[in-house]
Amino acid sequence: MKAAIGARVIELTRGDITHETTDAIVNAANSSLLGGGGVDGAIHRAGGPEILEACKQLRASTGTCPPGHAVITNAGRLACRYVIHAVGPVWHGGARGEAELLASAYRSSLRLADEHGLRSLAFPSISTGAYGYPEPAAADVALRTVRDHLMGETSITQVRFVLFAETTLATYRTALSALACGGPESGPSAS
Ligand code: ADP
Predict the structure, then answer these.
(1) 140 is catalytic
(2) Is the distance from the beta carbon of residue 104 to the nearest atom of ligand 1 less than 6 Å?
(3) CA distance 94 to 111
(4) Residues linked to residue 29 through DSSP beta bridges, in sequence order
(5) From the alpha carbon of 132, which atom of ligand 1 is closest?
(6) Greatest C-alpha distance within the chain
(7) Less CB within 10 Å around the terminal CB: N or C of the chain?
(8) CB of residue 86 inside a 6 A radius of ligand 1
(9) How many domains does the chain have?
(10) For the CA of 133, the nearest atom of ligand 1
(11) From first to last of its 191 residues, what are the pLDDT tens digits of the chain?
C-alpha cells in the first residue's frame, strides 16, 4: 500500500528491515545503545560489529539515549548508508506520555535524516514488540507523525514502514486508510 503526500510517498510493506536499500533504516533501539533483541538484534547481526562500535563511541561521548530521542551511525555491511537508532517508550498503560514519546522518537529520526540530506528512510514498528505498545495506537502515532513531517520542509521523499508480521502490516494499512479519509488537504491519498 502507498499513500501520496504531495510529491512524497509513505509505503507499507511486510519484510525484514535489514534487507532495505533506503538511504537509512531506523532501529527500534533501547537507551543503552548496546544492542538488544527483536529488530535491534537483527540489525546488529546483519550489519556486523562496526555498528555496535559506533554505538559504543556515541555512548561514551554523549551517554545513553533517552526515550523519544535518536542517534545516527554507519550501517556496517548493510545495504543502506546509515542506521538511525531511535528509542521508543515502554508501554505503561498510556498515561505516562507514551504517545508523545513515540511521536518524538519518529520526529527525531526524521530530523536526523534531514540533517544528513537523506531522501529515503525505512522504519520498523517502534515500541510494539518487547516494549508492549498496542499496535493500532502506535500505528496511528507513527503514520501521523511521518505524514506531518512529509507535509513540511524536508529532504525525504520516501518513507517505508517495513513490518515483520502480516498482522502488523494489516494494522498499519487500517491506520493509513483512516488517515487518508481526512481528504487530500489533511491526509494522504491512498492507492
Ligand atoms: P521495541 O523494543 O521497540 O518494542 P522490538 O524489536 O521488540 O522493539 O519490536 C518492534 C517491531 O519490530 C515488532 O513489530 C517486531 O515484530 C519487529 N521486528 C523484529 N525483527 C524485525 C526485522 N528484522 N525487520 C522488521 N521488523 C522487525
Answers:
(1) no
(2) no
(3) 25
(4) 87
(5) 4
(6) 47
(7) C
(8) no
(9) 1
(10) 4
(11) 999 999 999 999 999 999 999 999 999 999 999 999 999 999 999 999 999 999 999 999 999 999 999 999 999 999 999 999 999 999 999 999 999 999 999 999 999 999 999 999 999 999 999 999 999 999 999 999 999 999 999 999 999 999 999 999 999 999 999 997 664 444 566 56
Count H helices, E strands: the chain? Answer: 5, 8
Claim: this prediction has a pTM higher than 0.90 = yes
**Pocket of ligand 1 contains residue 165 by CB under 6 Å:** yes
**CATH number, domain at 97?**
3.40.220.10
Asked if 114 and 23 touch (Cβ cutoff 8 Å), the reply is: no
| Lookup: cell for 52 | 555496535
Backbone angles phi, psi at 134, to 5 degrees: -60, 135
Q: Could you tell which of 19, 98, 125 is best to mutate to test the pocket of ligand 1, judged by most ligand atoms within 8 Å of the CB?
A: 125
Distance 41 CA to ligand 1 centre (A): 9
28: left (phi over 0), alpha (psi -120 to 50) or beta: beta
Using N-to-C axis directions, what is the helix angle for 135-150 and 98-115, rounded to 10°? 40
Q: Is 16 in the pocket of ligand 1 (CB under 6 A)?
A: yes
74 and 44 Cβ atoms separated by less than 8 Å: no
Ligand 1 centre distance from Cα of residue 39 (Å): 4
Range of the domain at 33: 2-189
